[in-house]
């Protein structure tokens, strides 16, 4: 709690511009060493406290920095948000770029290097609350394509979206002692709730993942997974606000409960049980 | 004010998600009450060894599985189930009524669910026969709350027994999910045989005073150790300092290779110890006398053991070449069969991601080199590699899967 108060105080006392540089220094020299020493055992992200904390607190810092400049005009998050499940005019096309920082359980990835995934998503409105959405998440060796329809509805300042996407996972790694590929199809229904605060928006989304087929190959030897299985689910909470002009950015925290994640497939394709692990998302509405 | 609240909430989310986590802590095996072992007499392990084989469930709950592989270690009898890597580890003794009583625990491999369990073989169900080396009609029945009854089905096939298959625990750990003991620790050495292993794989680094110790990560960290005053690389500190101030996550101390070898030789029937060399400068120079001393100790006890120095990289091979006298001791090469041949290694161990490496395996065998695959954890993959590969052994984080599949497939 004391640490949280420290971060909060600094955050609000140094709200904008170049004056925030000491904040980052303070973060590096004081906060991160504290976190590093107090990290819980066996947390994957505790092994990289510098990267993780700097990444997210810097995001908060960015969000805070622009709160002053984003106040007195007719900007409306409902019309500019990418994540809100708002009904939009027929033919409207929107897109977003994101960075996903997945923190898989340490026992999945003992010797693996972790890195953020990049995501491109787009949606095209069909009118009457319907749209189709598609996207690609990639770490070069690990890729996930998804595509599918959504239906959205507005209740005053609240929005509800129900969707279904078909996902295709593709992993390929032929270096560092790996001669491995993974392919798999996944069904991904979801439900999203969003609230419009005027200039900011909060979105909560739940996803369910059913893996209908999967094939893994090592050195040409195929390991079949004959029957489909429930991979698990996730809940994502995202906060979205204006970044500049009419562009918005979002910060999302996703809690996964999965048997496998495409990011970690080279280490351990499918586990017998599900694990809880976080994923941090930073998005820019293009 | 609204903005402050909003941003404070955002940071709170960050803080909670960054610092909160699912701790993968130790799950110590449950202490058993052993009421049925009171006043029992010990039975030689060599006698109990006769009961090794395949068992089937003939009555009672199938909650722990329906078919089992029975293995006997130096002091325990263990059963490995067809269901989700469940294993049962039991102490035993001969009761005054002529029965053989068992008491111990069961556990899942990949989750920490576990509990106590007790069995008995009555005289009528084959206890007397077993003590005389006959097992054909052996029935082992649950007591004190367990309704299971297991019937001896068959002994292990000659093929399974003739292969000298090396089932090894990765980092010595019997189950990586909520393991019973800290990895690379003496309790792994003392217990791995009960978990069906014929050997284990440990990691080796040097301390500042050049003592080879068993630890995986390059630095002292909270994955492996409890919070303490020391931090940074292991080779900054003398072994005595590490022993005094570093505690593994289950309360044990970081063992030296010498301590590991002594426990391995004196207290187990294990055969293979793969020492994965992490590449400190001149590490083979300091490892060699420890290994030679270990072999001498084993010879004095008529123990046949194999202490294998694993060479995972070109850097470690370069260190190995700096110590020519080490060439007479067994080594293992991970990189390629060609390098294994070139360096006189007795073992070649490709990562599972290279596949079955059938050509390389044949080449290795033609040169008298044994082939191991590492680290296989996926049930599908373990079975696939056992059936289709030509491996002489496997390393796994869940050796119970390998034990069941190996003895039932062959």
Structure explained in plain terms:
- The complex is a heterodimer of chains A (286) and B (410).
- By secondary structure, chain A is an alpha+beta fold.
- Chain A has one domain (79-285): Beta Barrel (Lipocalin).
- Chain A has four helices and eleven strands.
- Chain A has helices spanning 2-13, 21-38, 49-65, 77-80, and strands spanning 93-102, 117-127, 130-138, 142-155, 158-173, 180-196, 200-218, 221-225, 229-244, 247-258, 275-285.
- In chain A, a hairpin with a 3-residue loop joins strand 3 and strand 4.
- In chain A, helix 2 packs antiparallel against helix 3 (49-65).
- Chain A is elongated, with a radius of gyration of 20 Å.
- In chain A, 41% of the residues are buried.
- Mean pLDDT of chain A is 78; it is low at 1-47.
- Helices cover 30% and strands 24% of the residues of chain B.
- Chain B is built from 13 helices and 19 strands.
- Chain B has helices at residues 2-19, 45-48, 123-131, 158-162, 186-191, 239-245, 257-267, 283-300, 314-321, 337-342, 358-366, 379-388, 399-409; strands at residues 53-59, 67-72, 77-81, 87-94, 100-107, 114-121, 139-143, 149-154, 166-170, 199-206, 212-214, 219-220, 232-233, 272-277, 306-311, 331-333, 347-348, 370-373, 393-396.
- In chain B, the strands form three sheets. Chain B has an eight-stranded antiparallel barrel. An eight-stranded parallel β-barrel of chain B has the order 9-10-14-15-16-17-18-19, surrounded by four helices. Chain B has a two-stranded antiparallel sheet with strand order 12-13.
- In chain B, helix 12 (379-388) links the parallel strand 18 and strand 19.
- Chain B starts with a helix and ends with a helix.
- At the A-B interface, helix 1, helix 2, helix 3, strand 7 and strand 8 of A face helix 1 and helix 12 of B.
């Amino acid at each position: 709690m004391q640490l949280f108060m420290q971060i909060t105080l600094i955050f609000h006392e140094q709200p904008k511009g170049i004056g925030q540089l000491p904040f980052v220094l303070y973060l590096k020299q004081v906060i991160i060493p504290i976190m590093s020493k107090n990290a819980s055992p066996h947390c994957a992200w505790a092994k990289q406290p510098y990267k993780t904390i700097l990444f997210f607190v810097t995001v908060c810092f960015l969000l805070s920095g622009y709160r002053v400049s984003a106040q007195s005009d007719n900007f409306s998050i409902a019309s500019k948000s990418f994540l809100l499940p708002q009904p939009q005019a027929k033919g409207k096309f929107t897109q977003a770029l994101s960075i996903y920082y997945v923190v898989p359980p340490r026992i999945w990835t003992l010797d693996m290097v972790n890195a953020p995934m990049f995501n491109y998503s787009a949606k095209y409105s069909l009118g009457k609350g319907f749209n189709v959405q598609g996207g690609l998440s990639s770490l070069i060796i690990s890729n996930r394509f998804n595509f599918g329809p959504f239906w959205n509805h507005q209740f005053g300042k609240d929005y509800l979206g129900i969707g279904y996407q078909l996902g295709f996972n593709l992993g390929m790694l032929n270096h560092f002692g790996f001669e491995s590929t993974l392919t798999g199809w996944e069904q991904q229904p979801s439900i999203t709730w969003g609230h419009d605060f005027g200039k900011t928006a909060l979105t909560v989304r739940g996803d369910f993942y059913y893996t209908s087929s999967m094939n893994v190959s090592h050195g040409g030897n195929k390991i079949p997974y004959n029957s489909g299985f429930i991979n698990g689910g996730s809940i994502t909470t995202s906060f979205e606000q204006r970044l500049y002009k009419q562009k918005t950015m979002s910060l999302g925290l996703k809690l996964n409960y999965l048997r496998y994640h495409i990011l970690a497939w080279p280490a351990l394709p499918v586990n017998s049980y599900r694990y809880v692990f976080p994923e941090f998302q930073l998005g820019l509405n293009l | 004010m609204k903005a402050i609240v909003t941003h404070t909430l955002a940071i709170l989310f960050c803080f909670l998600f960054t610092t909160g986590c699912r701790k993968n802590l130790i799950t110590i095996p449950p202490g058993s009450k052993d009421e049925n072992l009171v006043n029992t007499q010990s039975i030689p392990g060599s006698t109990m060894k006769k009961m090794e084989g395949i068992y089937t469930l003939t009555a009672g709950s199938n909650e722990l599985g329906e078919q089992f592989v029975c293995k006997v270690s130096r002091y325990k009898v263990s059963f490995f189930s067809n269901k989700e890597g469940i294993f049962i580890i039991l102490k035993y003794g001969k009761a005054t009524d002529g029965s053989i009583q068992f008491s111990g625990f069961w556990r899942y491999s990949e989750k920490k669910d576990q509990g106590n369990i007790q069995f008995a073989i009555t005289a009528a169900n084959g206890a007397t026969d077993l003590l005389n080396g006959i097992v054909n009609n052996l029935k082992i029945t649950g007591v004190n709350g367990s309704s299971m009854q297991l019937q001896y089905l068959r002994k292990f096939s000659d093929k399974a027994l003739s292969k000298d298959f090396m089932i090894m625990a990765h980092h010595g750990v019997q189950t990586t999910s909520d393991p019973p003991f800290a990895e690379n620790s003496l309790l792994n050495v003392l217990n791995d045989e009960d978990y069906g292993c014929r050997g284990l794989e440990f990691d080796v680094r040097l301390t500042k005073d050049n003592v080879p110790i068993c630890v995986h990560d390059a630095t002292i960290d909270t994955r492996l150790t409890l919070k303490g005053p020391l931090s940074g690389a292991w080779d900054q500190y003398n072994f005595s300092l590490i022993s005094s101030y570093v505690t593994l996550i289950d309360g044990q101390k970081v063992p030296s290779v010498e301590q590991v070898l002594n426990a391995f030789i004196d207290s187990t029937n294990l055969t293979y110890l793969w020492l994965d060399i992490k590449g400190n400068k001149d590490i083979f120079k300091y490892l060699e006398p420890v290994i030679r001393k270990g072999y001498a100790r084993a010879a004095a006890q008529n123990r046949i053991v194999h202490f294998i120095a694993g060479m995972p990289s070109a850097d470690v091979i370069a260190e190995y070449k700096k110590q020519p006298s080490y060439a007479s001791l067994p080594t293992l090469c991970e990189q390629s069969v060609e390098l294994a041949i070139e360096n006189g290694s007795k073992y070649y161990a490709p990562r599972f991601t290279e596949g079955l490496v059938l050509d390389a395996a044949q080449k290795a065998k033609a040169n008298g080199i044994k082939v191991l695959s590492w680290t296989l954890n996926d049930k599908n993959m373990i079975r696939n590699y056992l059936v289709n590969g030509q491996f002489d052994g496997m390393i796994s984080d869940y050796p119970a899967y390998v034990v069941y599949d190996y003895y039932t497939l062959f």
